[in-house]
Automatic annotation (TrEMBL):
GO terms for molecular function: fatty acyl-CoA hydrolase activity. The keyword Hydrolase applies. Residues 78-154 form the Thioesterase domain. NCBIfam families: unchar_dom_1. It comes from the Bacteria. Belongs to the thioesterase PaaI family. Keywords: Hydrolase. This is Thioesterase domain-containing protein. It holds the Pfam family 4HBT.
Length: 174
């Protein structure tokens, strides 16, 4: 390499056809579907492959994701882009809501509020994002979450409001 040239880095990402997971989602409760993703029975979301994060644990009203921050997550000022924390929180919070939904029901994020409390870099180490449901009603659900390192140090926290879509005739009270 000559003076003034920088080393070019590359990253190749592959993912499964997302229609496969969508078809499976329609036949399972939210909790069953997310467990099938973790077990590798159903493909996960392409965004998780692109950014290098994954769900690692789910239970009723709770979802946990992990990521190893890396250089490819960096913004131009040399730290991990805040979008990674926001995406992890959106995923963990939404999936926490999803764990409570029956077969045929779905959700979408209406609002996401994220607070970053410290910088993330490639040497931060593995981060865990835990989302927990606050409330699930007939049409609206809320959840809260935390993004922490292995020692429990907080890097970001947030809340979401989700719109819940239920199969017709299933009722649902607020």
């Amino acid at each position: 390499m000559s003076e003034g040239e920088t080393e070019v880095r590359t990253r190749t990402v592959t993912w499964a056809d997302p229609r496969e997971g969508l078809a499976a989602a329609k036949t399972m409760s939210g909790l069953e579907y997310l467990r099938a993703i973790i077990q590798g029975v159903v493909p996960g979301a392409p965004i998780a492959r692109v950014l290098g994060f994954a769900p690692v644990e789910v239970s009723e009203g709770r979802a946990v994701f992990e990521v190893e921050p890396a250089e490819f997550h960096y913004n131009p000022i040399g730290t991990v882009h805040g979008g990674l924390a926001a995406t992890l929180l959106d995923s963990a919070l939404g999936c926490a809501v999803h764990t409570t939904l029956p077969v045929g029901a779905g959700y979408t994020t209406l609002e996401l509020h994220v607070n970053m409390v410290r910088a993330i870099t490639g040497v931060t180490g593995r981060l865990t994002c835990t989302g927990e449901v606050i409330h699930v009603g007939g049409r609206v659900a809320t959840a809260q979450g935390r993004l922490t390192d292995a020692s429990g140090k907080l890097y970001a926290h947030g809340t979401t409001t989700c719109m819940v879509f239920r199969p017709s005739g299933s009722g649902g009270q607020e």
